[in-house]
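chain below, 184 aa
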Amino acid sequence: ALQAISALYQKQANPKIDDVQAFLTAAVMAAHRQIIKYAVDKGMLDTPRTTVVAALVQDGSASWVHCGDSRLYLVREGKLVTRTRDHSYMEQPPSSQSASRAAERLNRNILFTCLGSPTRPIYDLAEPVVLQEHDRLMLCSDGLWSNVSEEAIVSQLSSHAIAQAVPDLVEEALRTAGERCDNV
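prediction:
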């Protein structure tokens, strides 16, 4: 998925992307098609699946797309400005109280969309957000965010240089997850 998105960016950024929203949409769909093509080329009975989050920072603004439960966090002045909402039953607002109770029993890992599935993926696009000096964006998989609290993520990103914060967050996730860790 990341190779397909990166290749499309390298092809279209001359030197920048003209229509960021269209690019992010095309990038997610190119990644989805590439995964399906890979499975067909390898004669796989089922396609591999993945979640993805990708951001494009251009002209002082950030835009992003995500599918599944890979997340983007935007931290500003020690506070969480926004984070993506997973495409899982636990992260979606319930339509009724009984739906809410049923969702509480569901495993948080149950996603209703991803790349590589037989159906067209559902993804969310963020409108451009004007960045301010010292803003921090972090894109990560559930291997990190499920093993490190949101408060710890915000604190690390706010109080340390990126070169220190990211390895520290990864180490914390690895320590917390132990042997069950599969994708930090």
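The two ends are 16 Å apart (CA to CA). Strands lie at 52-58, 61-67, 71-76, 79-83, 124-125, 129-130, 136-140.
thats it, cya
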